[in-house]
């Protein structure tokens, strides 16, 4: 949460920073601000989106070859102009941008107030800049030394960049538990929360490690040290990202673009991993740790939100196809409940961003307990991908819409490949079924494309539900996590209350909610438990609920009893979630749009949840 960007070099910093902030806006959009140096320091900040800042600074002095910028997701202090970053030290000499939380800010603030400091904002960040300034003044320290000492007194998470008005030839940056990427250009440097602001400027990047401090100068030199003052040899990597992936193209919203990208992103996830004609499926991440993975007694999947729903599908896949026991955990619960994790467990973390604080902490805990750590991650070079022992990238490309869509299907695809790989090797999938699955897998991208053809129908249907206050989503088996995911998609972007339930659980409580005003989305594809789900639909209809059924193409039985049916192509049962989620993504998109909601940037949310 919160996005930070900084630039130092020979170019104008402002346009680079603003463009970068727009790319990072998915991380928070409560307020935005910049600090630019050109003979003097100019700080501009505004409540609202980056575009509100852009309007606010029109006509102001925006010159300078060095600057820092921030887009905020509020934690400490309400979203307003004062709490917006950058924050400055007492005398206005230092400015800071910060992503993370300084947990001991209250104690530090009290001590600083006693020393005579005055604070203008309610943020934890302001404490940090005062502390650095105080240390710098007291012993006449170099900025990097003051930052280093200040950070050793801080408890919490941070990615920061500090600019000193008295020495604007350099920027000092540091990170712990919040991401920070350094881009190296020709006599210029970029610092950002992820690599997207660097695209188009440089492809040379260094992902800073926890407790590292970088000093970048406008003479083209830089140095990385640890907080313990040890000089580090930077690991410079090549960035593989292109601009089209960061732009909306012909789509009205990133979310819609990302929904439509799924035939390609699923194919990208399978590329080089599956070849049905040659009869093989490879998973490099498993091969790297084959012995420990095949001897594992149990898999624990840890994730949050949509990634947790993908993990639930993973449980069904692994247990059915590979006959391996799986437990699925909310990372936020796992990390605090003293779980039993053993050396012969494999802990799989699922994360689009690879930065989710709870997932990261759960992994660290599992690592300490000796388990093998495996990552299913989208964001290349992210913190989670770097601490895992092994893993599989999902190759979905940057996901910018706050509501996760293509990352979800990417995660499910990766889990499906893993389950088939392990099942075949363990002998729990017979050869003929294995080949059938491989052939079925290769057809999935085309079937997703076909499933997307329901878009027009869903758009019309959405109009009927714009004034609804509650919606129930029901599914069984592989479609139960899809019910959860459909409900989450609806509530997060349209603000309509929605609940996902295993269809059979309905009669244990939620059935009381059903009347003629209650829309009930039932994922009723034609495989095992079909008759049971038909009975569940009958139960809803008997109470006059409005049934929207997601059915397999050609289904005639359900269309007779449901109010509306949306067809998806037939497939092997374990692949159903990859298709049944598509109409639900579209449904939430169109309902939200028709209600006038900001689909890509829903209220109160941020895409990368780097705080607890
Ligand atoms: C919902 C959504 C969130 C994320 C969750 C985990 O659409 O995007 O629920 O799935 O915050 O994020 P990652 O996958 O980045 O760890």
At the fourth level of CATH, the homologous superfamily of the largest domain is: Glucose-6-phosphate isomerase like protein, domain 1
Distance between the amino and carboxyl termini:
10 Å
CATH topology of the largest domain: Rossmann fold
Report the mean per-residue pLDDT as an integer.
Answer: 95
H/I helix tally: 20
Q: What is the 3D shape?
A: globular
- CATH architecture assignment name of the largest domain: 3-Layer(aba) Sandwich
| Biggest sheet layout | 8 strands, antiparallel
Structural class: alpha/beta
Number of domains: 3
The top level CATH class name of the largest domain:
Alpha Beta
Description:
The chain has 612 residues and is α/β, with parallel strands linked by helices. The protein has three domains: 173 residues, 4-Layer Sandwich (Glutamine Phosphoribosylpyrophosphate, subunit 1, domain 1); 180 residues, Glucose-6-phosphate isomerase like protein, domain 1 (Rossmann fold, 3-Layer(aba) Sandwich); 149 residues, 3-Layer(aba) Sandwich (Rossmann fold). The protein has 20 helices and 27 strands. It has an eight-stranded antiparallel β-sheet with strand order 3-2-4-1-10-9-11-15, covered by helices on one side. It has a seven-stranded antiparallel β-sheet with strand order 5-6-7-8-12-13-14. Helix 12 links the parallel strand 20 and strand 21. Helix 7 packs parallel to helix 14 and helix 10 packs antiparallel against helix 17. The model has no long low-confidence stretch (mean pLDDT 95). Bound molecules: fructose -6-phosphate. The site of fructose -6-phosphate has 14 residues, from helix 10 and helix 17.
